[in-house]
Write a structure and sequence with these properties.
Elements: H1 6-10, E1 14-20, E2 29-40, E3 43-50, H2 52-55, E4 60-65, E5 67-68, E6 81-86, E7 92-94, E8 103-106, H3 108-118, E9 121-122, E10 127-128, H4 135-140, E11 146-151, E12 165-171, E13 184-188, E14 199-204, E15 207-209, E16 214-216, E17 219-233, E18 238-242, E19 254-264
Parallel strand pairs: 2-10
Antiparallel strand pairs: 1-2, 1-4, 2-3, 3-8, 4-6, 5-9, 7-8, 11-12, 11-14, 12-13, 13-19, 14-17, 15-16, 17-18, 17-19
């Protein structure tokens, strides 16, 4: 890794997800996933977390990982490697609440396929429970906080370096309350197809304010997952709907108004109970 800055590590925590509704690699959909690890005692389970609607209906899923040649200590520079696997071969778990648009792909069979069938090692840098905001941190949040989203809007990626696109915004509703009574919040941030599943972070480097003081130092937390956006229809109605994943151009009869619906990150931990044998 280049240095200890938090922001430099963000570009290795996400994976672009490509999907095909046919048994081939003619990709028709794109979304974002991020690497997350569940751990208990000596057991660790790495997963790729995304939205249900990103992978629902996919026959083949394509994932591009950075390569590592030093036992996962550092990523090798370059475009990485694409793995295309039939969705039926991948253990996929879904949040038990049908109204929570979270799912995860188990990484163990993907890593095994890369290592034992293709002869290379994916670089896996996972987030985990320690990166979720603590109660104390949440209590320090103001009604307006700067946020960072990492992902692949409209499927865009720096293909030469396999880097995602990083964007800034603000919380549009207080994180300390539940938007519309759900464990969600709104973010004022550009929302496009391909952004579904993007992690939302608090990233403060150098200092940040709390209710009582300005703190010198850094602050980092995974606070949410983008899953939907508000759109304005041709007749002026505002509706919330899942962010489209389709890569093909379509005629527009509505447009995004750049208000993203985000699932609070605490709900990621609910996926652990869906892991077989956990």
């Amino acid at each position: 890794m280049s240095n200890g800055r938090i922001s430099d590590h963000l570009r290795y925590m996400t994976v672009r997800i490509l999907t095909s509704e046919q048994d081939n690699t003619s990709w028709t959909g794109a979304g974002t996933g991020f690497l997350y690890r569940f751990a208990r005692e000596a057991e660790q389970v790495p997963l790729l977390v995304t939205n249900k609607h990103v992978i629902d209906g996919a026959v083949v899923i394509g994932l591009t990982f950075h390569i590592t040649a030093d036992n996962n200590e550092n990523p090798a520079p370059g475009a990485g490697r694409l793995i295309a696997i039939g969705s039926s071969q991948l253990p996929i778990i879904r949040h038990p609440d049908p109204n929570v648009d979270l799912a995860a792909i188990a990484l163990a069979p993907i890593i095994d396929h890369a290592v034992n069938h293709e002869g290379w090692h994916p670089f896996i840098k996972c987030l985990d429970k320690s990166n979720l905001p603590s109660d104390q941190m949440i209590g320090d949040f103001g009604a307006l906080e700067d946020v960072v989203m990492v992902g692949y809007p409209t499927g865009i990626v720096d293909a030469v370096n396999n880097f995602p696109i990083v964007r800034r915004g603000i919380t549009s509703t207080p994180y300390t309350t539940d938007y519309q009574g759900k464990q969600e919040f709104l973010a004022d941030i550009p929302v496009y197809g391909g952004s579904s599943g993007s992690p939302i972070f608090i990233v403060n480097e150098g200092g940040y304010s709390t209710p009582n003081a300005f703190i010198m130092g850094g602050r980092f937390a995974l606070i949410g997952v983008l899953y939907a956006g508000h759109t304005e229809t041709v007749d002026g109605h505002i509706v919330a709907e899942p962010i489209p994943t389709n890569l093909m151009p379509v005629a527009k009869v509505k447009h995004m108004i750049n208000l993203g619906l985000c699932i609070k990150s605490v709900l990621i931990e609910d996926l652990a109970a869906q892991i077989p044998g956990w």
